[in-house]
Specification:
The complex is a heterodimer. By secondary structure, chain A is mainly alpha-helical. Chain A is 74% helix and 2% strand. Chain B is mainly alpha-helical. Chain B has a domain at 62-246: MetI-like fold (Orthogonal Bundle). Classes of the chains: A mainly alpha, B mainly alpha.
């Protein structure tokens, strides 16, 4: 084999991918950091270096603080509720002999293949105060005295409504991941636990949960990163941050600053905060969920 | 206790299934309703099949044109993605060379890059390129260009795709290549004729996942195609806003069906492969 032709082959194979990757991923990532140091309208050439000033303003920006709180709230609530439901249903489908198991598995995964645009539109229709499915269902039960709930129009409720849509779309995906982990646990473990008289619940906490812990850990970090992304899309389409900023999240606020306000530099400093935040959070979660991995 | 437990399980399973089937089925039902039917009870069955909604959505609301745009962006994106990722993955998995570790690390880091905020600099970069072009040729090229959109789609999917494919190539025994080399095949022929066909299962996984990602993509298409030509998801949001204002609900639901039907059909055809591929390929969404 000729060394020179091998070298040429390697370069030829790698360069197209590396060029695209550099131009459309590495370079833009660096520009996010660079732009965050400027006061810049984007379209004008009037670019002013302000160092960390954008970040100083951010720390006092009430709207940003609210978007921060909303993002954290969504991450915590959506993660916990989704994981609990996904693990519960995965355990049921793997360990219990349910009729129509395959049917349920196929149905539960459907939300994951739908576009966020579709899901947001469906939920906007479901939540609609006049024609919406939930309100019209509630009015059937409650009768004439029913006052419809403003799922997306009430400042106190809107964030829960968004969380509901996010949970709905995520359950099936994580369920399938945990099902894969659970189905590889050998059956003897459960058989011997049965003989010793351990209850189903006890078996779940003593056998199933510890053995899929690693899968849960990996999925958690991924989950948080995708929650930040998805919350943005849901909010942008369903409420565009409203009413009155009550559902603003990190990236929707960034988008607003960059495009609507034409303060790209300020917008990008939010991007940097999101980056650092998700990085730190992954680290923290990695640390607190660390346990000795159990083998079987 | 045993019976009660069983009953509880089925109640839980059926409630969750209903929470998915009812809204999705409801959209399908509403898409054939006449506009006057929307003002009564939303739970009522349609009085007939009012397929005009679809025809109106396709013609008047341009959903037909947007559909075509989505088909082009998605398929072109997939072709570009495979054309650049397959050779890169193969080389990274099978050969030793200087800089390999660095490239691998960079691509791994790329898995964590958030497309939703790098889309702003990408937009500004393309805008800059367009401005320079305007000065020379009098018109722009990079924004509102479906080929560029496909290129960006492909680029953002490179880290995951290369990672998945090269993991697969690593599992193949060396003997295949050695035999091909003895038979006189060059590196390129070996890759295309011997190794790539063996990677078919992973290639299918890659295509399935990225089809869903590209077809459903919203924010990149919204940003990089600011003017007339749109993809389906972006067009759908426009349709939603205009039809809500005009209180013309039938078209809106027909639009929703047009966006979700292709993915549902694909899913029904390959649902086993998709969920299996997911656990092989690790996490992505």
């Amino acid at each position: 084999m000729n060394n020179k032709s091998l070298k040429r082959f390697i370069i030829l194979c790698l360069s197209p991918a590396l060029i695209l990757f550099s131009v459309f991923m590495i370079y833009p990532t660096f520009s996010v950091f660079l732009m965050s140091l400027y006061k810049w309208g984007g379209l004008s050439s009037n670019k002013l270096f302000v160092g960390l000033n954008n970040f100083k303003i951010l720390m006092q920006d009430e709207n940003f603080i609210r978007s921060f709180q909303n993002t954290v709230f969504l991450i915590v609530v959506v993660t916990i509720v989704t994981l609990v439901i996904a693990i519960m249903f995965a355990a049921i489908l793997v360990k219990e002999n349910v009729k129509g198991q395959n049917f349920f598995r196929v149905i539960f995964y459907i939300p994951n293949i739908l576009s966020v645009v579709v899901i947001s539109s469906i939920f906007s229709a479901i939540y609609d105060p006049g024609q919406g499915l939930i309100n019209s269902f509630l009015s059937l039960i409650n009768g004439d005295g029913f006052k419809s709930i403003q799922f997306l129009g009430n400042q106190d409720i809107v964030i829960y409504s968004i969380a509901g849509a996010m949970i709905w779309q995520a359950i099936g995906y994580y369920m399938v991941i945990y099902m894969a982990g659970m189905s590889s646990i050998p059956n003897q473990l459960y058989e011997s636990a049965d003989i010793e008289g351990a209850s189903k619940v006890r078996q779940f906490f003593k056998i199933t949960l510890p053995l899929v812990w690693d899968t849960i850990r990996t999925s958690l970090i991924f989950f948080i990163i995708s929650s930040i992304n998805l919350s943005f899309l849901f909010v942008k389409i369903m409420t565009s941050g409203g009413p009155d900023g009550a559902s603003e999240v990190f990236l929707s606020y960034m988008y607003k600053q960059a495009y609507n306000n034409a303060s790209y530099g300020y917008g990008m400093s939010i991007g940097v905060i999101v980056f650092i935040f998700s990085f730190l959070l992954s680290g923290v979660i990695n640390k607190i969920t660390k346990r000795d991995t159990l083998q079987y | 206790m045993g019976k009660l437990y069983k009953a509880f399980i089925y109640v839980a399973l059926i409630s969750l299934a209903a929470s998915i089937i009812i809204p999705v089925g409801w959209v399908f039902m509403a898409s054939v309703k006449e506009n006057s039917e929307f003002y009564g009870n939303p739970w009522s069955l349609p009085e007939g099949f009012h397929f005009e909604n679809f025809i109106e959505a396709i013609h008047q609301a341009n959903m037909g044109e947007y559909f075509l745009n989505s088909v082009i962006a998605t398929s072109l994106g997939l072709v570009i993605l495979l054309a650049v990722s397959l050779p890169a993955a193969y080389v990274l998995a099978r050969f030793e060379f200087r800089g390999k570790t660095l490239i691998n690390r960079l691509l791994m880091a790329g898995l964590f890059v958030n497309v939703n905020y790098i889309v702003v600099p990408i937009f500004l970069m393309l805008l800059d390129w367009d401005k320079s072009l305007m000065n020379i040729m009098g018109e722009g090229f990079f924004l509102d260009n479906i080929v560029v959109l496909a290129l960006v789609y492909a680029s953002t999917a490179i880290p995951f795709t290369v990672y998945l494919l090269s993991n697969f190539f690593k599992t193949l025994p060396k003997a295949f290549e050695e035999a091909a080399f003895i038979d006189g095949a060059g590196y390129f022929t070996t890759m295309v004729k011997v190794m790539a066909p063996m990677a078919r299962p992973s290639i299918i996984t890659v295509i399935l996942f990225n089809f869903l990602a590209f077809w459903n993509e919203y924010i990149i298409a919204l940003t990089l195609m600011p003017n007339a030509s749109k993809t389906l998801p972006v067009g759908l949001i426009n349709l939603m806003q205009s039809q809500k204002a005009a209180a013309n609900y039938g078209q809106l639901y027909a639009g929703l069906v047009i966006v979700m039907l292709p993915t549902l059909i694909l899913y029904i055809l390959v649902q086993k492969k998709l969920t299996q591929g997911m656990t092989v390929g690790g996490v992505k969404g």
